[in-house]
Known about the structure:
Blueprint: E1 2-15, E2 18-23, E3 26-32, H1 39-51, E4 55-56, E5 62-64, E6 72-77, H2 99-117, E7 122-123, E8 130-145
Parallel strand pairs: 3-6, 6-7
Antiparallel strand pairs: 1-2, 1-3, 1-8, 4-5
Helix pairs in contact: 1-2
Amino acid sequence: MRVVIQRVSQASVEINQHIKSKIGVGLLILLGIEHDDTYEDIEWLCGKIARLRIFGDEDGAMNLSVLDVNGDIIVVSQFTLHASTKKGNRPSFIKAARPEVATPLYQQFIATLQKELGKSIQTGEFGADMKVALINDGPVTILIDSKNKE
């Protein structure tokens, strides 16, 4: 399971010219699910995301988490995070989970993250053509892969 975490001052998701989700200060999370991901990956990632200290404190040092700043979160599914560009110029998405595997894991990820935060989070729509807008604050962008816990 891979996530791209972007610290934002605002973000939104539009589907068919309709705003589905919109937040102010918080995190925009792009979530890629592999066919062999499990609920253990979800639990580890959600705990890491909730406590990741990437917001500035009163001295401007990154010492605060999204919990500390009472920030909001949007989670957007993005199978292209598992693109392989090893051969040729056309990406392969063979490692990305099929919808029948990915959908329940995506829903569990959302539920687990809401539990970690103690509040609702915003989402995109699984499988939809979405327009994602954001103002990346910093910019701060972090990639985490549950199979490569660095």
